[in-house]
From TrEMBL:
SUPFAM superfamilies xref list: DNA breaking-rejoining enzymes (SSF56349)
Record-linked PANTHER family: PHAGE INTEGRASE-RELATED, TYROSINE RECOMBINASE XERC
Protein name stated in the entry: Integrase
GO biological process, one term: cell division
Assigned keywords, A-Z: Cell cycle, Cell division, Chromosome partition, Cytoplasm, DNA integration, DNA recombination, DNA-binding
Ranges of residues in domain Core-binding (CB): 20-129
Superkingdom of this protein's organism: Bacteria
Domain Tyr recombinase: 150-346
Protein species of origin: Roseburia intestinalis
GO CC entries: cytoplasm
Subcellular location: Cytoplasm
Keyword Cell division appears in the UniProt entry: yes
Principal cellular location given in the protein's record: cytoplasm
Amino acid sequence: MSYREEHNEILAKKIYEELKQMPDVCRDYIKYLESLERSYNTIYGYVHDLQTFFYFLTVYNPQINTYKDVTIQILDSLRPTDIQEYMHFLISYKDDNGEKVPDPNKKGNNAQGRARKLSSLRNFYSYLMISDITTSNPAKLVDSPRIHKKKKPRLNKEEFSELLDGAASGDVLDDKKSAYAKRTNLRDYAILALLSGTGMRVSELVGIDLDDIDWKKMKIMVIRKGGSEDLISLNDELVQILQDYIQFERKSYDDSQRALFLSSRGTDRNRLTVRSVERIVEKYGKSTVALKKISPHSLRRGFGTELYKSSHDVYLVQQALGHSDIKVTAEHYIDDSESVSERISAFSSNLIH
């Protein structure tokens, strides 16, 4: 079983376990999403968002004690004003212990989190309408919260060099971390180099198996967001870094464990998790680029930005990052603000002289 198949199987079990506590119509909705081949990550997020909505109903409707008590009649009776109340509830409600609204997705109930929850509710009601279960979609008539965009951290070319140089030597870590890191130095360096040099997602990186690497063609196969396969090109340096790690540090492996990156803990040496990779990036990021909070996605954003600065080709960046929608590429990964400022300043100087 591949990493993706195993991951989906685990998520599917979690989803159907949580559905036992929810209205029966939710099970039909999830089956509908599965028929549309929505990713299990997406479906899992929908389930948690609906749980938050049902929690709101249990608080504000005395007839509802459990999620199972939410009937079709109750769902069909809700109006846009009720959904607006739900949006306000997400940021204002506190229980008797002073606790805020629980967020199973752990993404928070800021503007972006509320917008996502509203979108999930709109999708749920759309399904109810096309299935002739309800007569309206009250969530569709409620405006989405305005999201104030913040410039998220990304590395520039010099910072990429500092990060990778520090990881290659391991000297940037304190004595305690350095002693442990010596056992995984080649692995950690390979992880940082692959994330920095390809812009792949951390979920794509942990899913790589040894068999996914074509050494002759210098390409690596990854499973993109949504489940599609894609080939990413490797340069000579990345090939050498990966081969060094496999030959000198990963060494022997059981045929049943084909993951490229393995945990150093325990005797089983299981596939490295997303959280483990995040910790590795954070560890070296704090030691080399201390002024920025570095995550795997910071490396992805930095890769996209640097590629655009070099090529000025947004379609190339879209293809390299594996985006299905070029708007996502342009909005989140193209940061050419410094270059734009320089051009505006140059134009202004020429104009007044």
